[in-house]
Amino acid sequence: MADSRRDLSDEAFRAQLREWLTRVYPAQWRDPALRLRGADARRWQRMQYEAGWRAPGWPAEHGGLGLSIRKQVIYQQELERCAVARTLDHGVRMVGPILIRYGTPAQRAAYLLPILSGEHQWCQGYSEPGAGSDLASLQMRAERQGECYLIQGQKIWTTLAADASHIFLLARTASGGRRQHGITFFVAPMATPGISVQPIKNLAGEEEFYAVQFDGVRVPVGNVIGAEHDGWRIAKTLLGFERLSQGSPALARHAMHLARRIAHHLHLEHGRYADRLAHLACDLHDTSVLYEDICEAAAAGREQPEDSSMAKLLAAELLQRITECTLELVGEAPWRGPAALAPELRTAAERLFLLARPVTIFGGTSEVQRNILGKVLLGS
Amino acid sequence: MLQDSAQAFLRAHHSVRRARTYRQSGTGFDPDFWAQLAQVGWLTMRMPETLGGTGLSIAEVAIVARELGVHGVADPIVMAAMVPSAILAVVPRSAAAARLADTLVSGGSTIAMMAGDLPLPVINGRLSARLPVYSLAPRNTLCLLVEQAGVPAIVAVEDARPGVSLIRQPHDDGSVSGRVNLDGVSIAPPDSLLHDGAALAIWRGAMHEGLIALSAQLTGVTQALLQMTLAYVKQRVQFGQAIGTFQVIQHRLVDLNNAVRLAGASCGRAVREHLAAPGRAAVPVHAAKARCSGTASDVACGALQLHGAMGYTDECDLAVFFRAATVLAQTMGNATWHRHALWQRLLAMEPDHG
Fold it and tell me: Is A30 on the interface with B (CB under 8 A)?
């Protein structure tokens, strides 16, 4: 089925996907601000898998759809159009592509299929208490002992660790020389003895991220992905369209829609908020156009690698500005007459405002994105 | 390629020095350069070949306009030639159209376009009004949107006609716009390029092309400002190193570069949407002029800041582009005006508030 989809015309492909989403996607999940987790995430991934819509970027011989970049762009557009909820899905986005590129046949056989079916959920063990933006300073040790590595240390800010069946992580296997050298990429089941998770409640009151403790965890050498000491290079290869999809302004569009609804209900769309809303509407328009242009360039094989940093930076900061304005609009409600604002609109605005805070922190802070872009721009 | 030939023409016939001479002349018109522009066909790009034009579209106009910006040209090519040429592209053949076309083909004088799109009432064949125009040269043909007997019309009138007086408004880049006082000026049927209901849509379509072309010119100016600033911060040494190695400078330049990319994307979208639906692509056209004006102002001021005291001198080449950016950013409506126009459109278009 996947084979035939790959060969469809772009328009037929779009129509098929749209028809399927419209027919099967549950109404209660139609919310781009929602993140499915646990059983819901597994169920949605299984639905995609069984209908032959899972892993758009993976090659067909590994069970993916093997889509061109152009069709992957369409895939993302249709999911956004249907207001599909987000899932973490590190399995399809990161682990799968890395295994396909660097894994052994045995590793692929062990992990790819359970990722596709939704049976395995993965979390990412990169950040440590002393290693955030400066990831290369990570301290977690992995010491070779016969056919195993003994792993000791702590990971932190690990999103949805309690939902995960598996973790992929970076640990130091050698020291001295360049800091990036001597880091190795491992995979491990979360059930491995010695791994424990502690929730960290976020500002929105949710248990979204966790500290993951490794106390004398023994991981077989077969769980090293790629060569020993070569993990930094592997971790940096976030592959293909996945890099770019982080820059989609879909959530900003959703936030702008909410801002307009609230402004309308409070009769503030023509008043003192008009220029600010107009400014945000223009920013959204142009950011969307630029993102489409960048996707089009990627589809034509003309993408500049740093463009994904630019797209992510622009979309993230725009989402923040929109949600900040929306929260201010909500703050006007008490002075705009009784019952002027439905409680669910207020809740949605407050929720989006909080949801928008970490987008300039995870996946490379805005400051790090500016460093990357600055290096390219100044040629240093 | 058009872009290559545009660059070659400007390298041969224009320079930063000529931009300075143009500014100092105070006339808003460089007759020699204008004649060369006529010869190369840039004043008549949109006109059909039957009128002596080259029959090109807004896509090619935008390419040339962008190069005008890159090279710091302040002459009123967009408003005094490209916009009227877009009107001549769509009106039927007539003696009035041929006369106006000849003005552009010969390059002898310029066309002063009335600002705005509210028709001026002609009463008993006479027109009295005070109106702003986008450019003024020593001799002008006025191109006006009027209403005669309840029907809109586009008319062309020499400024030598009795009852016409001009008030010139020089700008910092050397260009000159102004106000026209019409005191009982006679308007006769032979003055009309078009006298029917379509005149309004044609006028608006041409104004949209003006906005797109100015946006494209602004992207060129902005690109030039960014490039000269990038070059400057790489060679300017302070505290023992090139200032371009400092993170704070790099981050400022990244933000300016991102703005330049947004402007290019927005302008490109406006061109495509206008080609698909001429005169009806108001949202992308307002978005483009808002973005390109805002970006040009930000990049001009940011470039000046990063040049330090050198950037505040007349002698620095930055001055030519700074002036072009700040004047063009205001021409035909600044960023705030176009943001507002876009917002009004959106409010009218999508009454979707659940």
Answer: no
